[in-house]
Structure formats: structure tokens, C-alpha cells
């Protein structure tokens, strides 16, 4: 039962982590572009 409750939360955390990494990656690209200019 604990696994059934944990799984959706894990998926939500995983999706949020993907979004967070995506935004950090975009921010890093923008920062690199600014430095190159």
C-alpha cells in the first residue's frame, strides 16, 4: 500500500525535477550567450 501511495508522488517529483533541470539549462545557455557577447 505504501508503494501505491509513493508512486504518484515520485512521478510528480520526477516531472518537477525535469522542469527544474530544463529551466536551469536554459538559464545556463542564456548566461553563456551573454558572456560571449
From TrEMBL:
| Record protein name field | Uncharacterized protein
Species in which this protein is naturally found: marine metagenome
